[in-house]
Design a protein that fits this description.
Shape: elongated
Keywords: Disulfide bond, Glycoprotein, Immunoglobulin domain, Receptor, Repeat, Signal
Largest sheet: 5 strands, mixed
Oligomer: single chain
Number of strands: 25
Family: Belongs to the type I cytokine receptor family. Type 3 subfamily.
Protein name: Cytokine receptor like factor 1
Pfam families: EpoR_lig-bind (PF09067), fn3 (PF00041)
InterPro entries: FN3_dom, FN3_sf, Growth/epo_recpt_lig-bind, Ig-like_dom, Ig-like_dom_sf, Ig-like_fold, Type-I_Cytokine_Rcpt
C-alpha cells in the first residue's frame, strides 16, 4: 500500500473534516504540493476580489492519477460542500470551479476554499478574500488631558465594513517642519482610536490624519490641524455631594471639587449640572453655573429622589481662545428633597371653610416667583437670599394663620362673619 494512503477500514470510517480545522486553514496555511503522495494545487492561490466579482479556479492533482482523479474531487467553501453543477472536469487530473457574484468574506482572515479527494481528505486549500477597498476615514476628533498627551478617534468610512482586514494608522507631525510620526497605542477608547502618550510640543500646531489600507487599496483622511492647548479636557469633577437645604422641600445644594489634573496650569473652568428624578430618563441641564464649584437647585418636587451629575470645561489655558472640550459627566449622585409639611388634596386635612381667604393666590404668586428664579438666576447667591426671605415670610404667615384658626372657636368665627 503506497505511503500516505489510508487503508480500507480508514476509508470507510472517514467523514468530511469538521468546520473548525477548515476555518484555520487561512491562518495556518493550506496543504501545498509535495506534502504527500497524492497532492494537488489550487489556482489562483489566495485571490483577492471585489464584491460581486466572479472566480474561475482549478484543482490539479499531482502524482498517481489512478489514486485520485478529477472525477472523484469536490470543493468546499468554509466547510460547506459546493453544488456539483458549479464544477466541471477539464481533464483526468483537473477539476474546475466557477463562482459568480461573490459576497463579502465571512471572516477577515479569508474564506477557506478547499479541494477534497473522494474519501473527504484535503488535497489543497486556498484563502479567498472578497471585499471592498477602504473608504476615506473622517470625523477625526482629538483631546488632551494633561497637555502632554493626545487621544484621537475617527470614523472608518461612510459604510465602514470592508469584509477584509483593514489597517488604520494615525499619523501626525508638526505643521511647518518635522517628519511624519505614527501613533502606536490603538483601541484605547474604542475600535478606531489611538493614544499618543508623550513628547508633544506646545504653542505650535500639529497636522493629524488617518490612513486606511487593505488588500484592495488605501485611503487617506483630510488633515486635521490643531494646537494641543485648544483641545484640553479633564476628568469629570470628583467628590460631587448633593444635600438638602435645611427644611426647604424644593431645593438641593450641589457641591464638587475642581478636577485636580490641571491644578498647576493657568486655566479657567466652567461647569454644567444636570439632574433628573429617580423614575425618569429625562435630564434637565443647568448651563449658567460659571466658574463656581457649588450651586443650589430650586423649584424641585418635595419628597422626591434626584440624581445629579456635573461636568467641566477648561478654557483659556495659557491664553487659548478656543471654547474648550467638555469632560464626561461625573457618576450620578442621589439625594432626596424633604417631604412637604403642607396638607395636600386627599391628605385628610380640612378644606378651607366658606368665606375664609384661600391660599390659592399666594400659591400662584409663589409659583410665579419660582418660575422667574429658575429662568433668570438659577445659581445666583443674591437671588437665593431673596428667595430665602420669601420662604421665611411664607412659613411665618402660614404658622400665624394656623394659630389664629386654633384660637378662634367655631361659634365666634360664625359671629365674626355675621
Amino acid at each position: 500500500m503506497p505511503a500516505g494512503r489510508p487503508g480500507p477500514a480508514a476509508q470507510s470510517a472517514r467523514r468530511p473534516p469538521p468546520l473548525l480545522p477548515l476555518l484555520l486553514l487561512c491562518v495556518l496555511g493550506a496543504p501545498r504540493a509535495g506534502s504527500g503522495a497524492h497532492t494537488a494545487v489550487i489556482s489562483p492561490q489566495d485571490p483577492t476580489l471585489l464584491i460581486g466579482s466572479s472566480l474561475q479556479a482549478t484543482c490539479s492533482v499531482h502524482g498517481d492519477p489512478s489514486g485520485a482523479t478529477a472525477e472523484g474531487l469536490y470543493w468546499t467553501l468554509n466547510g460547506r460542500r459546493l453544488a456539483p453543477e458549479l464544477s466541471r472536469v477539464l481533464n483526468a487530473s483537473t477539476l474546475a470551479l466557477a463562482l459568480a457574484n461573490l459576497n463579502g468574506s465571512r471572516q477577515q482572515s479569508g474564506d477557506n476554499l478547499v479541494c477534497h479527494a473522494r474519501d473527504g481528505s484535503i488535497l489543497a486549500g486556498s484563502c479567498l478574500y472578497v471585499g471592498l477597498p477602504p473608504e476615506k476615514p473622517f470625523n477625526i476628533s482629538c483631546w488632551s488631558k494633561n497637555m502632554k498627551d493626545l487621544t484621537c478617534r475617527w470614523t472608518p468610512g461612510a459604510h465602514g465594513e470592508t469584509f477584509l482586514h483593514t489597517n488604520y494608522s494615525l499619523k501626525y507631525k508638526l505643521r511647518w517642519y518635522g517628519q511624519d510620526n505614527t501613533c502606536e497605542e490603538y483601541h484605547t477608547v474604542g475600535p478606531h482610536s489611538c493614544h499618543i502618550p508623550k513628547d508633544l510640543a506646545l504653542f505650535t500646531p500639529y497636522e493629524i490624519w488617518v490612513e486606511a489600507t487593505n488588500r484592495l487599496g488605501s485611503a487617506r483622511s483630510d488633515v486635521l490641524t490643531l494646537d494641543i492647548l485648544d483641545v484640553v479636557t479633564t476628568d469629570p469633577p470628583p467628590d460631587v455631594h448633593v444635600s438638602r437645604v435645611g427644611g426647604l422641600e424644593d431645593q438641593l445644594s450641589v457641591r464638587w471639587v475642581s478636577p485636580p489634573a490641571l491644578k498647576d496650569f493657568l486655566f479657567q473652568a466652567k461647569y454644567q449640572i444636570r439632574y433628573r428624578v429617580e423614575d425618569s430618563v429625562d435630564w434637565k441641564v443647568v448651563d449658567d453655573v460659571s466658574n463656581q464649584t457649588s450651586c443650589r437647585l430650586a423649584g424641585l418636587k418635595p419628597g422626591t429622589v434626584y440624581f445629579v451629575q456635573v461636568r467641566c470645561n477648561p478654557f483659556g489655558i495659557y491664553g487659548s481662545k478656543k471654547a474648550g472640550i467638555w469632560s464626561e459627566w461625573s457618576h450620578p449622585t442621589a439625594a432626596s428633597t424633604p417631604r412637604s409639611e403642607r396638607p395636600g388634596p386627599g391628605g385628610g386635612a380640612c378644606e378651607p371653610r366658606g368665606g375664609e381667604p384661600s391660599s390659592g393666590p399666594v400659591r400662584r404668586e409663589l409659583k410665579q416667583f419660582l418660575g422667574w428664579l429658575k429662568k433668570h438666576a438659577y445659581c445666583s447667591n443674591l437671588s437665593f437670599r431673596l428667595y430665602d426671605q420669601w420662604r421665611a415670610w411664607m412659613q411665618k404667615s402660614h404658622k400665624t394663620r394656623n394659630q389664629d384658626e386654633g384660637i378662634l372657636p367655631s361659634g365666634r368665627r360664625g359671629t365674626t362673619r355675621g
